Amino acid sequence: MAIKVLVIEDSAVLRALIAESINEQSDMEVVGTAPDTLAALERIKTLNPDVLTLDMEMPRIDGLAFLEKLMQLNPMPVIMISSLTEKGCDTTLRALDLGAFDYIARPKLDNRRGVLEYAEELIGKIRSAFQSQHKKSGAASRIVHHSQRKYSADAVLPLKHLSFSTTEKVIVVGAATGGTVALKTLLTALPADSPAMLIAQHMPEPLVRAFAARLDGLCAMTVKEAQHGERLLPGHAYLAPGNRHLILSRSGDDYTVTLSDGPLVNRQRPSVDVTFRSAANCAGENCLGIIMTGMGDDGGAGMLELHQAGVRTLAQDEASCAVFGMPKEAIARGGVDQAAPLGELAGQLTAWVSARGKRSFQV
């Protein structure tokens, strides 16, 4: 049975592009379109779609107001189409808080390659949204096949465990689809004296700064966008900038941040595999690795490398994931010590810190 999609978009050109891209797929179809949210409300009732695409900047009732009403009355997977301006970033994060499944940046229609990449990304997110909604019913999975070359972390840095003597602890976290909500749950539950944390979250560049600022206002820890060369400090969480790999490095006894413009790994930059490998190289048993909700397999290979380096490794369990792809791959490869519900990950982290002592918390 095809995935039924309703496209809500006020631009006739973009509406046609989205519909054409969806209808080219054998496993999905556009059952209807709407030029505004008022028309969309009526078409949801009559067409009963599985997934919505929603332009957040709509006439009459705006996307946020529509989304809030929808999630109260008839929750369903929604993929937002957002401009990544300062205002657009705030709107996107608010929509994720309201229950939107995922987002995609509004494409530039004068760039053919960009349009093709946009269509491929949107199709993958529609499939993931549908699978997430139906995972408890046993609906068959649909896997997205890509034809382009897929690089491993070898393209950015070699796997080479380094000798070290410091006992300073560090946490590395990888996440993608659903990660904004999952990371907020994890970080707001952690105390201010938690070990330094590096976070590789698949996210476009303009959104990272807004997301870090939002988390910083909610958390006891300091949350910031990572900067090249800075020393890691306890009580700080460092988010990978958009389009840069986030690498844990050593400078004497200190951990530092290295940012890399190296090739995409698993079609991602930042790549979770790269961050995890860097921690396997230079942190060993003083590190804790966590892989969270996300589409695809990024982080699976890196999680196994962490495990083999003596790192304690945790995965978010299937029931609490928006998309179980990344944790599932890490578990299948044998790199996960324990899978736990999202709400228990912070407790697992603090228990690990307590068991290993708190000598590392002195700056």
Task: Give the SSE map.
Layout: E1 3-8, H1 12-23, E2 28-34, H2 37-47, E3 51-55, H3 63-73, E4 78-82, H4 86-98, E5 102-105, H5 112-134, E6 170-175, H6 179-188, E7 196-201, H7 205-218, E8 222-225, E9 236-239, E10 245-251, E11 254-260, H8 272-282, E12 287-291, H9 300-308, E13 312-316, H10 325-332, E14 338-340, H11 342-355
Parallel strand pairs: 1-2, 1-3, 3-4, 4-5, 6-7, 6-12, 7-9, 8-9, 12-13, 13-14
Antiparallel strand pairs: 10-11
Describe what you observe in this structure:
By secondary structure, the protein is of the alpha/beta class. It folds into two domains: 3-137, Response regulator (Rossmann fold); 154-358, 3-Layer(aba) Sandwich (Rossmann fold), CATH 3.40.50. It contains eleven helices and 14 strands. The strands form three sheets. Strands 8-9-7-6-12-13-14 form a seven-stranded parallel β-sheet, sandwiched between helices. Strands 2-1-3-4-5 form a five-stranded parallel β-sheet, with helices on both faces. It is elongated, with a radius of gyration of 21 Å. The protein starts with a strand and ends in an 8-residue tail after the last helix. The model is unreliable at 136-148 and 359-363 (pLDDT under 50).
Strand order of the largest sheet: 8-9-7-6-12-13-14
Overall shape: it is: elongated
Instruction: Give the N-to-C terminal Cα separation.
Output: 58 Å
The poorly predicted ranges are 136-148, 359-363
Q: Helix- and strand-based class?
A: alpha/beta
Helix content: 25-40%
Total number of domains: 2
* Strands, total number: 14
Radius of gyration: 21 Å
* Overall pLDDT metric: 89
- CATH evolutionary superfamily of the largest domain: Methylesterase CheB, C-terminal domain
